[in-house]
Amino acid sequence: MKVTTVLIISLLGGLYPLFASVPTILFLVGGLLLLNCHKKKSIAPLKIYVIWVILFSVPLFIIHAFINPEFEKTTQLIGKVWIREGGVNFAESRIMLISFMFAIALCWINVNRENLIAFLTKVRLPKLILEIAFQSISLVELVQVRSKSILLAQKARGIRTEGNPIIRVKALVAIVVPLVISLLKEAPYRSAIQYYSKSTKSLSHVKGGAMYSIPELAFVFAIFALVAVVGQIAL
Amino acid sequence: MITKPEIQQGKYNKFKTSGGNAEIWPFLDHVETLMNADRKRITNSIAYIPTDPQLCFSGLWETVGRELEMLSRVHSFEIENLLKKLPISHLLERHYSALSGGESILIAITLGLITGSSYWVLDRSFEWLDSKIIQWCRQIFLEELSRGSTVIEIYRESPKLLLDANNFSSVLENKTLNTLLTNTFPDGEQNAKLVFSNIQASYGSEFSIGPISIALPIGRTYPMLGKNGAGKTTFALASCGLIASDGVSKITNGKFKSKSPLMCYSFQNPDRQIFRNTVFKEVSELAKRFGTYSEVSMKDILEILELDNELYLDPFALSLSRRRTVATAAVLASGADVVFLDEPTAFLSAREVERLRMALFHVSGKGMTTIAITHNQVFANSMNKTQLLMENGQLEVGSDDC
User: Fold this and answer.
1) Do the Cβ atoms of A149 and B48 come within 8 Å?
2) Stretch 121-160 of chain A: residues touching chain B, C-beta under 8 Å
3) Do B59 and A149 touch (CB under 8 A)?
4) Is the pTM of this model over 0.80?
5) Is the ipTM above a cut-off of 0.90?
């Protein structure tokens, strides 16, 4: 995926509260993923996205729209089954958030980090922002590599990771918990390496970067404006 | 506990560790104080190589070559000259997660060379390296010393005991252990063989192993030797079905009866394998999941490996060598038919290596086949005359009897 697409996603993240409506979000997210699929000549990311969103959305909707006693029963559907309108709205907002988060995560995973880093250094952002950006990019990579190694370890321990959605969700828990713990545990070692070597490797592109080109700047701002306008119209 | 060691500047300093991780922090602080007081220092950085060398990689770049190139750009370092000297050219196009343990150390040391650090802290870095690479590292550090650098190596106790201990008398204080080493090989399996047929696997187009087809009598421990990056770990992972492979592994007794063996793999880095919050839960989990849990065999393994006093401790509160032992205990107590141990002697003290040998003899006597990937030739020779040698993705069986 190109750097510009990532920038659009970042901007969408910032503008999210402006156009908090399901059709707009789904339209934009779906468009982004289709763009990604087109670039990669594969619909695999879109398939993953749809599966994961459905996997989380359906139980979320059922729990809040039909079961959650915090919301009042408003419409009787069949017999004892009541729809809770407040719950429907709540579930809708959460589904929106989840789908958006999945889309961002998928885009990050599919991004060519080298291009992104090259672009960020080219635009000569302040050092602090660059460092934060690089650290977060490297975190994505670390999480990806570590989750693969934990998946392998859990498979070696006899945990089933492939099969129906329930097995996959159970496997997800078995991966996410050790992932977070192991990343926290190794943090002191990583910071020690950074501190004692006094050379923040992530800043390696800062030297020798080119100036920001005006067309690129204009393009980014044009995209920003377009997204804002689409959001307002949708509202 | 190494707190304030006497470090000789411009020399190669060696410090023996008891195996703990926590002792490195005050040690590094002390080295930093020394470095700041050193007026002749070349740079103001310490090249710290931790026990897990993969922590040295930034994770920003797609290939190892890019990582080296970008760091050399920051430090205005001529990477081309270094690449001519180092045996790493075949690794440059790989992602860092596709490097073997030894190769990761090699690249981590190269990163340290690029930063031009005048102080080196090597935290048990040579555990996973083959002798050729250790020789190469020695040459590198001699050059570093000649330009005024200070090298500090933290090492574990050397397992020299093995050289004069063909029996276990040196560590057998507890006579009841003798009974645990008696052979109770399952009936009817004396002639059975573990057969790997057509095992092949690859990491993209850069690295591949096989096809490998061998047959080994079961109920023994086979050391697997080979230089760094030869494909030992890949073979183990492929045989266990943990990475995609075309081949099959089976146990056959020669009467056209065969079964798929229950296989288990212990990772090179124990921290990748331990997930539970007590030693007992960790050690017993695999056996419970496989449905092979037996209180007696669990007790035997824990006793032999001297974990019986640490059962309810958090594994991560233990030292690295104990965590290594916990990880090994978990697979040995699993009741699997075949167990792969990746560098089981790494980070262990001499006593722990002896205990490991006992545990391996114990499980072999019960019919378990273990394949121990190692660079420790002394350990390998003490386990079995029949050894497996991996070279360039091909496996050969070598034996004194051949």
Assistant:
1) no
2) 134, 137-139, 141-142, 145, 148-150, 152-159
3) no
4) no
5) no
